[in-house]
Write a structure and sequence with these properties.
Distance between the termini: 27 Å
Number of strands: 2
Shape: globular
Length: 67
């Protein structure tokens, strides 16, 4: 995860496909949540929280709310 942060800090954009939402929340600043081949949500954690009306929700809870 440290290497990913270093690369991103250098100004590069990384696309990371990951099923561990806790890890994604720690590393990523924007998310595209997919289920059954469809985009269910996209944006920053704050934007996704606003979209679901859950201001303190974690990424896993947001995913469950959107699917």
């Amino acid at each position: 995860m440290g290497v990913l942060r270093e690369v991103a800090a250098s100004g590069r954009t990384l696309v990371l496909a990951i099923h561990q939402l806790g890890d994604a929340a720690r590393v990523c600043d924007r998310f595209v949540l997919l289920a059954e081949g469809r985009i269910r949500g996209a944006g920053t954690l704050a934007e996704l929280r606003a979209q679901t009306g859950s201001p303190a929700a974690g990424l896993e809870d947001i995913f469950l709310a959107l699917t």
